[in-house]
Prior knowledge:
Elements: H1 5-10, H2 25-118, E1 123-127, H3 137-147, E2 157-163, E3 175-180, H4 183-195, E4 199-200, E5 212-217, H5 221-236, E6 241-245, E7 248-252, E8 260-262, H6 272-277
Amino acid sequence: MSIDGSLIDKESxxxxxxxxxxxxxxxxxxxxxFKSFQENMISMLETWFTKQDDxxxxxxxxxxxxxxxxxxxxxxxxDLKKCTHEVKSRVEIIEKSVQTxxxxxxxxxxxxxxxxxxxxxxxxxxxNLPEKRxxxxxxxxxxxxxxxxxxxxxxxxxxxxxxxxxxxxxxxxKNVIVKFASQITRDNFISAVCLNxxxxxxxxxxxxxxxxxxxxxxxxxxSKELFRxxxxxxKQNRYRFVWIKHGVILARADxxxxxxxxxxxxxxxxxxxxxxxx
Length: 278
């Protein structure tokens, strides 16, 4: 059903409706209260918006600070990246230079080790010799010479001293380095020890439980490491003899077979032909 608004305007109000001639005091109070409420709400909203503005301003400032920090880090990263690239380029140049000069470096290292070994040609190294306080090393060498029947006097010894072990935690006594007056004296001394099949500590009047005393040529650290490798391989592959003569490591599979000279790690491969025949 639809209502015609024009008819409503023309009709008179019903008799039970009366028109008010004025506004009551309650209505006036309500208006004041509403206005006061409205003003309070406006004030609260303004305060809230002011606080939000302050927070937003602070947030913008913090964001600007973060942005500045990020830019600083980015610049530093770019600098670091540039430096890394430069270092990488230099390392590549050095690596290429090392690769190019590798054969020459190896040659120089071998030559240096050879010169160092030559400087030790008159030296003998005695290991596992019991260490005593106040010991007289020259007298001990003379006693060894008497046992092996290869006379040596104090005049034949230029210097003698103990040296620390390469492993500081080792419980073995320090080795003794003897520098003889000539290489011939040194060689004869070592050969006599070998012919005597070694020497023990009780034979040279050192108190305590008998210990096997070893006498060898004084090798460089590089030669010692190579000698250790050769001995291990020889033991694994049933080589009967491994020894040193004039700074050169020699290996022999058996009595009738020829001796193989080992001067570098590459020479270890010389042991393979004999191993393959077994």
